Amino acid sequence: MMFSDAGGFTLDDIPTDEVDRQEGVRRPLADAVRDLVDATIRTTVPDDEVRAVQAEIEAAVARLRVSQVPGPRGIRYNGEGRSWSWGNAVVGAHNAIAPPLVIHHDPSGVATSDVVLGAAYEGPPGLVHGGVTALLLDHLMGETASGFAKVTMTGTLTMRYRRGTPLGALHLEGRIDREEGRKVYVVASIGDADGPTVEADGVFIVPRWAADLEETR
Amino acid sequence: MMFSDAGGFTLDDIPTDEVDRQEGVRRPLADAVRDLVDATIRTTVPDDEVRAVQAEIEAAVARLRVSQVPGPRGIRYNGEGRSWSWGNAVVGAHNAIAPPLVIHHDPSGVATSDVVLGAAYEGPPGLVHGGVTALLLDHLMGETASGFAKVTMTGTLTMRYRRGTPLGALHLEGRIDREEGRKVYVVASIGDADGPTVEADGVFIVPRWAADLEETR
Description:
The structure is a homodimer.
Chain A: E1 2-4, E2 10-12, H1 16-42, H2 47-64, E3 76-77, E4 83-84, E5 104-105, E6 111-117, H3 130-146, E7 153-161, E8 168-180, E9 183-192, E10 195-205, H4 208-215
Parallel strand pairs in A: 2-3
Antiparallel strand pairs in A: 1-2, 3-4, 5-6, 6-8, 7-10, 8-9, 9-10
Membrane topology (chains A, B): Peripheral membrane protein
Subcellular location (chains A, B): Cell projection, Ruffle membrane; Cytoplasm; Mitochondrion inner membrane; Mitochondrion intermembrane space
Domain Thioesterase (chains A, B): 126-197
């Protein structure tokens, strides 16, 4: 049984054990698809081989589509406090577009993430696409603002590009700068071993319905 | 024969006809992989079937990796003025992460793009990930600033989120607001049939070496 609440999240009564088990089976498939995205970009095999592999992929798609949800995956949670957003474009375990980012929250409120970006995230030659740094920072900052407790929506987001971000190992870091009423101000950066390449600040808004909910707690 | 110039672009002496032919063979493979990314997110087939499809995908990856470029694809161009960036995260025809965006430039300097985003681009339930709108706007604005002629790098980028961006058919639009010395100011938006959902402005910088090059022309 499931229903959607005001925020569009869906309560789903699957026990946490079963959520973890399903995730464990499907994550390696998504990892294989991530590898395929990279191989598709970099391959130089002959045309006939490209066409043969294409036919294999189309057959695999048909097998997976025998049974599927009618639209996007959304965000689900159960009564035990476990939530999962398998299709999320940044952190979704089952989404081959997502690196996926794994975000750690330390008790002081700082959120960090380490990620390795390959050929699929390229913009300028050898560098991460500037929009990809914005994509990852937007997500990290949203999670920093909400701190796993509060509901927030992005208000504004400003990115300052200091230098090119090389493909490879990268580090992201975000923290709450200050809060004013329903506004949460977050600062963050992404960078390599030599320091930040892109710095960002954002204003995140606690929706009125969520703020009202908090007051009644 | 190929070599890299100051901007990291690579001159490649493949004739345009052959570039087009190779692109035509490899594009349908990338389209099949895009479809697979979506099917992987949405499938509900039994665990054994998931594992069987995973094995098929791993075999396909091995076939493609028999011959491949050692790293990312970069940006190439030939002596006929044709350039191609097959691996680009937003417009790369061979990159299954890219929708890919197709950008039109009208003579007045306005750049537009129409795109349909599905389950793989989800953030909040049923909505496009805010960072994905930033990813697409960053690219459109960069191309608007460079106007297919000038080299520019992103300086700063500010996004204002007006309301959620629904998954489905979307329209992007960008134009140069003004230019000051080596700075190009660009404004842009993404939205649905009801109007803009996210508005953006950005400052793009013409690198000194490129500005110097232009003066000597």
